[in-house]
Amino acid sequence: MGGITLSLDGCNALVTGASSGLGTFLAEALDAAGASVAVHYHDNKRGAEELASRLSNPSVVIQAKLGDLKDVSLLFKKASEALGPLDVLVNCAAAESQNVSDLPDISGDLWSNTMTTNLDAPMLLTQLFSAQEALGKKGGGSIINISSIEGSRPAPGHSHYATSKAALEMLTKASALEFGPRGIRVNAIAPGLINRVGIEEGWPEGVAAWKAAAPLGRLVDPNDIASTCVFLASRMSSSISGTVLTVDCGLSIKPGW
User: Fold this and answer.
1) Which H or E run includes 130?
2) What's the rounded Cα separation, in Å, for the pair 237 and 239?
3) Domain containing 39 — which CATH number?
4) Strands, E assignment, the chain
């Protein structure tokens, strides 16, 4: 392997939406690989602080509303001031996919909030990440956008969410194209239905349908998303950029007829 490992020793990372759900797994995995992590949260301060207390490397907890682009700029500034220039950016936070609405009934506020949180905030953070003067001295960096299989396979009632994720995947590819000469790699992960506490009890019919359809017959383990994130952040994936890596237990390969 030429000495190339999954180690992120000496790296600084910002993970949005890290106070709960998938973001917590991502932050913990990056920390375990050696990175110092800026833990972003919106309103779950307790969850963010509890996460930070479990991390082994230096970390910082930062509150920001991603629907407010001024807050987004302050988030990046605070993370950089606390840890130093960022080597890894993980755009995980997203407006809830559970905000189900038929297309004719989508309100302007729902559409705007979904696009601002899921697309505008990652766009601004990507710009700020690429503008770091110290980045070139380190030979580049890695941006990982958390998309969804709905970016290519929309679900009923999720047109706003699916559209935002499809746009995020194109932003991933466009960013990889433009920032590649600076050594910045940009990739996305498109998870399928992720296992979480209470999901089988709260949505038994959906879980059963997913398991029946997915070739591996199970939900996606969030640890698998986290390990994929570490891989994309590390030098082991140094030739991978502009890719959307699907992690869905094989569901997307099932025939649709």
Assistant:
1) helix 121-130
2) 6
3) 3.40.50.720
4) 12-15, 36-41, 59-63, 88-91, 141-146, 184-191, 244-247
Q: Show the domain range for 226.
A: 12-247
Answer yes or no: is 252 within a domain: no
Q: Catalytic: 161?
A: yes
| Among 25, 129, 161, 231, the one annotated catalytic | 161
> CB-based burial of residue 20 (10 Å sphere; 0-12 exposed, 13-18 middle, 19+ buried)?
middle
Length of the chain: 257
Instruction: Give domain status of residue 116, yes or no.
Output: yes
Number of domains in the chain: 1
Q: Give the chain's residues under pLDDT 70.
A: 1-4, 96-98, 136-138
pTM over 0.90: yes
- Whether residue 40 contacts residue 18, with contact meaning beta carbons closer than 8 Å, is answered with yes
pLDDT of res. 108: 95
pLDDT digits (tens, 9 = 90+) for 234-256: 999 999 999 999 999 999 998 87
Note the pLDDT tens digit of each residue in 44-85.
999 999 999 999 999 999 999 998 999 999 999 999 999 999
Do the domain assignments include residue 255?
Answer: no
Q: Concatenated DSSP letters for 154-169?
A: --TT-HHHHHHHHHHH
| Residues ≥6 apart with Cβ < 8 Å to 107 | 101
